[in-house]
Specification:
about 130 residues, mainly alpha, 434 Repressor (Amino-terminal Domain), 8 helices, about 0% strand
């Protein structure tokens, strides 16, 4: 059994990864779960070491898992799911080449305007997120 610090770290990691997999922000999760502002944020930052069962149930309902899933210290499903998702995307028909080119141009312009640079991985992720949304 893990101590409270380890539990809150495992819980925060589970929530964070599951939020990312569902493309949810902290605010969106709190809102969809009907929680007060900062309820989830406090868990993620370690400020709430022992969140109530009601909070955990509300969070798990939105994230599509059980409270037990959130509290487990096992490796998280996301890596496996993401590789399947990436394989599916790579095998999709390349139906809209003009849209993809517009997406690339949009990201490049946005980076230029902000005076930012991106790694190839970051740029490809941006292209993919916009193109497949």
């Amino acid at each position: 059994m893990c101590n409270n610090g380890e539990m809150s770290t495992a819980l925060a990691k589970q929530i964070s990864v599951r939020m990312k997999a569902k493309n949810l922000s902290v605010l969106a999760l709190e809102k969809e779960a009907g929680l007060k502002t900062h309820a989830v944020r406090n868990i993620l930052r370690g400020g709430s070491k022992r969140p109530s069962a009601d909070i955990l149930q509300a969070v798990s309902d939105v994230l599509g898992c059980t409270v037990k899933d959130l509290l487990t210290n096992q490796e998280i499903f996301q890596e496996e799911d993401l590789s399947e998702s990436n394989d599916e995307r790579l095998n999709m028909s390349y139906s809209y080449p003009d849209l993809y080119m517009e997406t690339v141009q949009f990201v490049n312009e946005a980076l230029k305007q902000k005076g930012k640079t991106a790694t190839l991985k970051q740029a490809l992720t941006c292209f993919e997120e916009i193109y497949f949304t």
